[in-house]
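Writing this down once: the sequence line spells out the residues, with the fold written below as integer tokens. This is how one looks:
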Amino acid sequence: MSAIKKVVLAYSGGLDTSVILKWLQDTYGCEVVTFTADIGQGEELAPARSKALAMGIKRGNIFIEDLKEEFVRDFVFPMFRANAVYEGEYLLGTSIARPLIAKHLVEIARKTGADAISHGATGKGNDQVRFELGAYALMPNVRIIAPWREWDLLSRDKLLAYADKHGIPVDFKKRKGGAPYSMDANLLHISYEGGILEDPDFAPEESMWRLTVSPEKAPNRPQVIELAFEKGDIVAIDGKRMTPAKVLAALNALGGRHGIGRLDMVENRYVGMKSRGCYETPGGSIILKAHRAMESITLDREVLALKDDLMPRYARMVYNGYWFSPERELLQGLMDASQATVNGTVRLKLYKGTMMCVGRASRDSLFDPRIATFDDDRGAYNQADAAGFIKLNALRMRIAANRRRKPRSRP
């Protein structure tokens, strides 16, 4: 590591990454390149540029990129084609953003001739794994500096003292303690962890939530929306075509207004510990509900069953940081192939934290009303065929039951 001359830092402009920037300069004596990704976190990114300049970063070494469309198009939408949910609840909002950031860290490292990349993830969490697995998959010999695994600045007081010593500007809220949670935001979600949430029996205050109103305060009238799908992706809302990022932003607003998408769970981190987190994923919750409704009439029963069997494994791949692994890419091919017929419209009724599908239609529908009807089907389905079908499927159970009734013979 002593030979490192230039490093690309994933830089937000906040306290942690600003301290890391200075620490890299002092500890490694290297040139620092900053990379700030706009993935819809809703924060002004211009301060990141001014802070980097104030800390001696060359203007040509400051990269701020708008990645919202790429994030939704190439990462979020493919994940929702698989209906990915981690441990039955989590919609993977933080997990899916990390490979995108890793990809651009590596691209900028190549562009600038950097020797290494650096990130602000701690040694206790999942993000260190996600960043580094992604980077190694794309740049096998990249060197990675993870300051939280090296330095002794392991408390907020120590970080503040380091910042004061080196003249690093600190936001007033940070100095006073700021939010009582550790938050991560992007266009898919906001997560809340740490602080008082580390007690899994503590109910978060209503003031914590930022994207959604409480279901109790949501409108008293339901709202019905129509979502149009093409090959498994939503392309229009109420007849208006939109880009992927605009689709997700619009669904966030709709879901947030109706109190949809809140989650409080204890999950199993890849590093081995349990962690309590609260999440807001209004748009993602709507996408998942609508997508499953669309698939219900357009996918074969066994294709659906196969997808459901594979989904938990796919979700673990995303959660654990294996987005660029050959197994995830192979599985993605299967998921994408299944979506060729997932075309049509779904109508959802949003009301006080709930969603109900009230209609679905598709030119590729496998729903045949002539066969499914309870009225006279005029011979489309021969009900007498069911007797043999049932008897054959019961054969193994009948054999076992008969065997149990027979008296056991002595050996």
Notes: The mean pLDDT is 95. Residues 301-320 form the longest helix (20 residues). The domain at 6-67+94-178 is CATH 3.40.50.620 (Rossmann fold).
